[in-house]
Amino acid sequence: MAEDRRMTRMKELVRTLDEASRAYYVESREIMSNRRFDELYDELVQLEEQTGIVLAGSPTTKVGYESVDELPKETHESPMLSLAKTKDREEMRTFVGTHRVLMSWKLDGLTVVLTYRDGELQKAVTRGNGTVGDVITPNARVFRNIPLKIAWKGELVLRGEAVISYPDFEKLNESIGDADAKYKNPRNLCSGSVRQLNSEVTAKRNVRFYAFALVSAEGADFDNSRSRQFDFLKEQGFEVVEHVMVTADNLDEAFDYFAEKIKTFEIPSDGLVALYDDIAYGDSLGRTAKTPRNALAFKWQDEQAVTHLREIEWSPSRTGLINPVAIFDPVELEGTTVSRASVHNISILRSLKLGIGDEITVYKANMIIPQIEENLTGSDTLKIPDRCPVCGGPTSIHESDKTQTLYCDNPECAAKKIKSFTQFVSRDAMNIEGLSEMTLEKFIARGFIHTFADIFRLKEHREDIVTMEGFGTKSADNLEESIDKARQTTLQRVLFALGIPNIGVANARMISRAFDEDIDRIRTASAEEMSQVEGVGPVMAEAITQWFEDEGNRNALDDLLKQVTIEKTVQPASSEGEGVTSSENLIAGKTFVVTGAVSHYKSRRELSADIEAAGGKVTGSVSKKTDYLINNDAASSSNKNVTARKLGIPIITEEEFLNMLNRKDM
Asked: What's residue 57's pLDDT?
């Protein structure tokens, strides 16, 4: 019976680990913590050793998981094995023995094999399942730090880790739209970025490559030293993973160095790697079916603490997904105070059998990300909310791949309108610094923001904001200062900020000027009146007037107008020249094309904004309707200059434009 129980458990473990591996490696999502995966994996290894049986499909017999089907496949010349791992310093000390070893970061990204021939990058292949990987050569060429040509002309094959740093992860997660919901950590984001079909997407994501192993270098001699191989790779222009030479004498010193540095290390790392410097000795040790014997991985021993669960904060996102976040009594972990941890989804939350007041153990996964390890009470009394914490709309539980998640079903939920709030605070709109898309999402999830006007009332939540991760007194002060500065604004900024259909930056200026910068005239204008504005056709006019007719929009606008002061930028257009400056007489109604580099302005966009603010129009191409081409290089033979000369259109410089604008003081 004992054998039957062990066999049943082994089958269960293989199935569970296989599902977790597929989710992690193929679908770039997590259904269990790294710590839990390691525990189950170790249990399976122990059972296999006890029974002498290894089931087909066991994760102990394969490396990683199948690579995705969208990219070409290639079989590696030599299998890419996983490293044996330990969390015990003494086991690492035994491995080192009397030898010299290189100790380096075990980076947490996507392993890639590069091949160079005749000094040029020929091929890049992902690790895949260890035997077959994805060919991602075009994407590798746009990694931030890979040399496309090197001095060495013989064939060179090396391995390294493609990674995205934590700072870049934060920035990128704000800019990739709905894909944000798919990426919970830099490793998953990197995996999706490296395996893109379009290398242009990869190029925007700041992927970096750190070499950690030289496979072969035709004709090179390294004096039997892995350290010399690393030096050689650096000489060819590669960034090599940080490493130190270690012996038994300085092993603890090296451990302490890396353990301290991981606290502020910007590149994801889940441990360390020890590699024998003596190449011949390491190779002579051979390998097991799964692991080489010349290296050993050290996984961080996660520091744990016991605390009590005080609250589950339900955090909605733009996709409608509502993530549970555990709030517990503050504890010290890895030198910092933590009081929050994501529970990821309903399935994990239910498996922990949580209840308010339960005694729980928490840790920092890889010394970085707070996680709940175990619920010591297991009261299982927590209720799943049937209403969204942001909008109060109904919620529902969705199930996919045996994972349950909670969603808000209200399409009008403020959390789903993050893009509209992002536009509201953008540079061309209210220009509120310190409110990134990610920060807005956090504030909306906390219930601080429901409408545009709520942004100007954030000071009411200052006490909570200063305690949020990534914030503090200084950040809160800066945000309040930026919000107060935005209270003095212009009508064109407000019109663009509201996100009214079809009103872009240029249309907002034209509409504002056409109605003498009077918001009451604009909100009561008929579709016929609106269609008289240059650049506004009947269909656009109808959409704009319908927006202002909506009671909810009118109420939101009234609320906003109580928080801001709209300043006029020009004299009324209807005053027939009275009070109109000479610069407006020169520019108003004229059509400009802007090209080439600018020097007085920060950008051509800023120059175009001044033209439109003075009543002019900016287009992208030169035609018979163009009045002026602005180009500081009037003698250039660019297509726009040639066309302007043929049509007899004046080519003027920025300086000449500023004279027209009567703003020489810039």
From this structure: 62
If one looks up domain 73-299 in CATH, what number appears? 3.30.470.30
For residue 420, the SS3 value is: helix
- Could you tell me how far CA 57 lies from the centroid of its own chain? 34
Structure token pair of residue 539: 């269909």
Fold of 414-486: DNA polymerase; domain 1 (1.10.150)
pLDDT value of residue 114: 95
Cβ distance 112 to 209 under 8 Å?
yes
Cα 622 off chain centre by: 39
Question: Taking a C-beta distance cutoff of 8 angstroms, is the pair 355, 381 a contact?
Answer: yes
For 439-508, the three-class secondary structure string (H helix, E strand, C coil) is HHHHHHHCCCCCCHHHHCCHHHHHHHHCCCCCCCHHHHHHHHHHHHHHCEECHHHHHHHCCCCCCCHHHH
User: Could you identify the residue written with the tokens 């004498």?
Assistant: 249
Query: What element of type H or E holds 655?
Result: helix 654-661
Residues in the chain, overall count: 666
Cβ within 8 Å of residue 401, ≥6 positions away: 19, 23, 27, 31
Which residues, including other chains, have CB under 8 Å from residue 216's CB and lie 6 or more apart?
A: 155, 156, 157
How far apart are the C-alpha atoms of 132 and 134, rounded to whole Å? 7
Query: Which amino acids are annotated catalytic?
Result: 106
CATH topology classification for 491-569: DNA polymerase; domain 1 (1.10.150)
- In CATH, which superfamily holds the domain spanning 582-661? BRCT domain (3.40.50.10190)
Q: What is the pLDDT of residue 15?
A: 81
Q: Check residue 436 and give its pLDDT.
A: 85
pTM: 0.48
Residue where the block lists tokens 């890396």: 258
- DSSP, collapsed to helix, strand or coil, labels residue 124 as strand
Integer Rg of the chain from CA:
31
For domain 304-408, give the CATH superfamily: Nucleic acid-binding proteins (2.40.50.140)
> Is the CA virtual torsion 411, 414, 416, 420 positive or negative?
positive
Task: Tell the residue number behind the tokens 């991985």, with chain if given.
Answer: 297
The DSSP line for 130-195 is: SSEEEB-HHHHTTSTT--SB-S--S-EEEEEEEE--HHHHHHHHHHSGGGGGG-SSHHHHHHHHHT
Dihedral-angle region of residue 482 (phi above 0 means left; psi in -120 to 50 means alpha; beta otherwise): alpha
Q: Using alpha carbons, select from 425, 395, 94, 523 the residue that is nearest to residue 274.
A: 94
Q: Give the model's pLDDT for residue 454.
A: 94
Phi, psi (deg, nearest 5) at residue 556: -65, -40
* Fold classification of 2-61 (topology level): Helix Hairpins (1.10.287)
Walking along the chain (666 residues) 10 residues at a time, the average pLDDT comes out as 70 82 64 80 84 70 49 85 87 93 94 92 90 89 85 92 89 56 72 85 88 92 94 89 94 90 87 94 88 89 86 83 91 80 89 94 75 91 91 88 85 80 88 87 86 94 86 88 93 90 78 89 91 79 89 92 85 39 63 85 77 79 90 82 90 84 48
Return the pLDDT at 288. 84
Q: Do domains 414-486 and 491-569 have the same CATH topology?
A: yes
- Check residue 663 and give its pLDDT: 45
Helices vs. strands in the chain: H and E counts, helices first: 26, 24
